[in-house]
Amino acid sequence: MSQALTRYSALYASAMSRRRRPRTLTGLDRLTAWVQLKIRHQRTALRVLLREARQIDAMAASIRAHSEAALDEQVRLVRERFIRRDVTTDVVRRGLALVREVARRETGEEAYVVQLAAALGLYHGRIVEMLTGEGKTLTGSIAAPLLAWKHRSLHIFTVNDYLARRDAHSRGAIYARCGCTVGAIQQEMSPGDRFQVYARSIVYGTPKQITADYLRDQLRIGPLGSAWMGRAFLSRLGEEALASGAGPLIPGLRAALVDEADAVLIDEGVVPLIIAQPRRTDDMADVYRQAAFIASKLDEGPDYSIDALRRTSELKRRGRHLAAGMWHQLDHPIWKTVRRAEELVRQALVAKHCYLRGKQYEVVDGRVVIVDEYTGRFLADRTWEHGLHQAVEAKEGVDVTADRETLARMSFQRFFRSYPFLCGMTGTAADATREMEQVYARPVTRIPTHRPMIRKQLPTRVFLHGQDRWTAVLDEIERLHAANRPVLAGTPSIEASEHLSSRLAARGLEHRVLNALHDAEEAELVLDAGAAGAITVATNMAGRGTDIKLDPQARGAGGLAVILTEMHTAKRIDRQFIGRSGRQGDPGTAQIYASLDDELPRQYIPWAVTLLRRCARDGEIVWRSGARLALRLAQRRAEARARRSRASVLRQDDWIDKNLPGQ
Amino acid sequence: MSERPTFSPFWHRVRALRPRLRPHVQITRQHYRGRRWHVVHDPATNQFYRLNPIAHEFVGLLDGRRTVEEAWNLTLERHADSAPTQQEALQLIGQLYNANLLSIDVTPEVEQLLRRGRERVKRKAIGQVVGIMYFKIRLFNPDAIISAVEPILRPILNRWGFLAWLAFMLFAVSRLIPHQEELFSSARNAIAPANWGWLSVVFIVTKAIHELGHGVILKRFGRQVPECGMMLLVLFPAPYVDASGAWALSNKWQRIAVGGGGMIFELFVAAAAALVWVATLHTDGSLVHQLAYNAMFIASISTVLFNANPLMRFDGYYMLSDLIEVPNLMQRSQNMLKHYFKVHAYGLKREHPPTNSPSERWILNVYGVGSLAYRIFLFITITLHVMGIAFAIGLLLAIWTAAMWFILPIGKFVHWIAASPNLADKRARAVAVSLLMGGVVFTAIGVVPMPDHRRAIGVVESRSTSGIYVATDGFVREVLVRPGDRVRAGDVLVRMESPDLVERIAITRANVERLDSLLRQATQREPTTRDSIASQLASVRDQLAYWLDKQERLRIVSPHDGVVVGNDPALLIGAFLREGEGICEIVDDSDLRIVATLGQHENSWAVKAARGELDVHTEVRFVSRAPVRMPATIDEFIEAGQSALPHAALGYGGGGTIQTRSDDRQGRLATSKQFEMRLTPEPAREGAWTGVPGERVRLRFTLADKPLAAQWADRLHKLVQGRVTL
Fold first, then answer.
1. Cβ distance of A652 and B10 shorter than 8 Å
2. Is the separation of the CB atoms in B341 and B353 below 8 Å?
């Protein structure tokens, strides 16, 4: 009976989580909500957090004097207060001081005042910006017990499975002494194991894993509303008890602590996680090949135009005529409907021009694999929707897979909005403050560094052509290498990293490449990247969660030199990559090498490009401030565009939630 | 090019559902401009939804057994390119579900239902607040009343009844025509404040009959009126009924009949009232007569002005909309104008126009421009009108309406410019164009000086006017002039006679002769008495001269050139008049001036202008001779306000524009203080015609050019000034 009740409550919590999603506000509502948010969170502003943190720090001496047993007893008392919901400022202070002491005794790391402030920020539901190397892991692990006590269960989202496993293990001792159970979700786990893990009070996992589990749960619950939910649940429970139980894996969403919050909540916020199944009847493979063939016969300009920004194409009169001539000879019924036929051809054109091998995808073992724009990693089990994936496959001449039909989809944006409590940490949140406030109603706090930052940011250099840039980059790498400094060269795509690698090889410079094609060697590569004179070429893969430790010789030579060979469309991604250098007070330099041929200036500021071309000498733009300004503008525009598209997804999600039944 | 992607990323949310139309939902077929539409009507909530034939077919396929995906695939097979895309189908299902027209095979979500209900209430409340000029108070369901009335009227609710109604109208008009003069002479009575109480009673009764008309005809076609109540139309209560049931009628003439039903009933009342009015003409001023007049007045004028006017959202609008078969005329015409703006000013080439049919587009253009202009006109007039009645409320109402009609749309517009995703690529241009236009408007209103005209009304009067008075008691024997006669100086106006005087002269003459002879004798015989006689004679001669002079003044002459005005002296023939009694006046029309009255808010500039501190160009226009315009100079401005008008011709009663007190019989007491200004007309050449004394003139003062905004601010300031005491 008690098991049935637990099941019931899990099912109920799981279904109810749908209803908690806040609505996006518009107009005056949005303004008032924003003002409310600002006012409400004044009480937990940075200076308050720091003051509190200093008070907690002052309690350290007395707590340190406790014997082990006394400490455990104290923890138990404080925990009870949390569980009884009898929480005052004093209790929070005391709790954090105790957990800090537990962490010190278990792992030997003692949190600094700024880390305490950050942990408090997390406790109060803020998105905390801490520069890389400022001890996010420790901060998270002293905030987690408090959150777990208060919200009964806490999900901690990490960048990858490895980190989830590592943290769950290394922090396990702290949590155990704090009376929390801990577990980590791993990709290869069976549902039964997952069920066990989700039952624990602190669960580590990647957003993808947990979101997918949630989505599957929701599918299983089906399009249930709330009216007769109780009855429907009980009947379902009866069946499922017979079928030896596959209730929801996740017993409701309560609290989430997101590491690299901006990446998860914003960059990947709208990338939908899709549960799909192949269509039962599928004879479309030929159709996509035919479309690719027709597309290859058309000429850009007279026949069609491409909008690279929107990733759309438009057939002109001549192109439509030509294409129609070709598809009329085809006998698949789909070619009989003009709109569908045109759509297929346009899609094939988009696949041809806007989706490039080595940039958006890579072909691995005869399969098209998507490369994540932000992390540079393969998204092995994801596909593009509505035939785009098939169009790309047809273009590449690999086997065209069956079109899949979506059963359920969920974006991180939507998923994380379902949590009643959300907080996060990241190295670069300040640029996303507005969006965090609007979409997630979470304020952002920037925590000062414990040790001053001494990394030097060198002025951006802008070149006329990509070739000039590569030459300059190579020269610079050579110079730095000669100075015995480790170099990390960032490239935007796999293709570019391979290109730079071949150029380096041509100059006889020994180097290593870190991209999605070589992800197996990642850990080893990262370990070596801090050695004196090491040259590492990396995609954005090196941008998150990579801790490059300098050897003493390299530190003496001036630390890690980061060279970015192109500006990304979002400033945060650049900052993230640059953040690999200058960790924990290490020396280092960073410099961006951009060219006017890059996608960013070409797509977002074409007029400025023509203007800047006139200010070049020896392939480099001499009017540096102008070029930098223009590039920053392009970046802003790109960011605004991305923000708008996320907002529009959110609006659509909301419309559906409001107007249609079920999940 | 319209892009309608076939697939939607959200399709999975509906594809497996098995929805069906709710069983009680009614579908009727309608035709608009040759195209078939289906109106889905939920009688329970009185909600409507219009579907095109393919969407209708798609919805029809949703029978609760098929899934949405199956139905969609079937439509796709049948209609290929014109079938709805997934996105369209999704939207359709969402909207129908949201309007409670569709039931879906899942457990109902109470949460969603309740929220929908709350939102409906909220929307309604916001609608009320926004449209405070049309504030609605819901009262009851009038179906019982209408059901009681309708069977009685049913025999005549057909085309024969309509013809009979027409005949009755014609008959009433024919009875009115002979009494045109009385009709218009009492026009002023109808709105005099004394009649206002009756006016409102009659107004509400006629309007109730009007609404009953809608209801009865709707009932006649088998639909119901679910709601009736009071609408505060610009603060004036007027009944309303919810006749939206007519939307589901498939015959457009039936819909028009429902729309026109109110006016038909109301005009019937007007015609009946006209007959009563004609019948009671002899009892001039009786209550029945007055009420009949009011009823006739309201039921015809207001019907024509308001209900039949298609530019406002009353009956005429819906009738027109049905007649030309363009549903949702107002909104779509506004969208049409916006569309032009977006395409041409902002370069949004991808925007969809509200219609693609050329004829419909034409209609939308005309209507859009017309209704926009009318809206502005209406706002100004209603505001001023209400301000006239109740100043504070009027002011609040004006501010509110300005906010709702102008500021809110501007705010929305700015938001749209700043945040609309459609504008993403054209934002720079949109901002530039908007700023430019805003700049042009701002410059035109706020910077460019514009002529500043003020108007006043005045009367021509002569500077030299002589009263003609009797100088010697006597009987009027002969009158030589009549009023209006032009006389020169010395012309005889009236001859009088005085028998008494004749006798006195005769006696005095005899005395003179007697004394004359006495004097002659004394000179010869008694020189000692000569002196005393001589002095007697002199005094008697003086007496004679005096009497003769008096006699001379029995002939009354004009002292100067001029025109005879005043009472007709001919009436005095034979009368005995004493010295000092007035006969008539001689007005010198070669030396005229103008007396004008100005309201107190014109004070500031008029004072300065009279002192010569302000350069004001004044133009005089004569009522009698419209083409004549001449400049004038301001001589004097009397800085003390007074209620008494210098001339009755300036007041309402005399045909002027200044409101006079209703208790003043002479019509010379203004309701507000007036300030007098005296001017001298300056004809182009010396001695030219400068009007007739007593004639009304219009004055236009041209002040120094000032930007329009400053002028308006000035005027508003004046309007507020003197009304609000802080």
1. yes
2. no
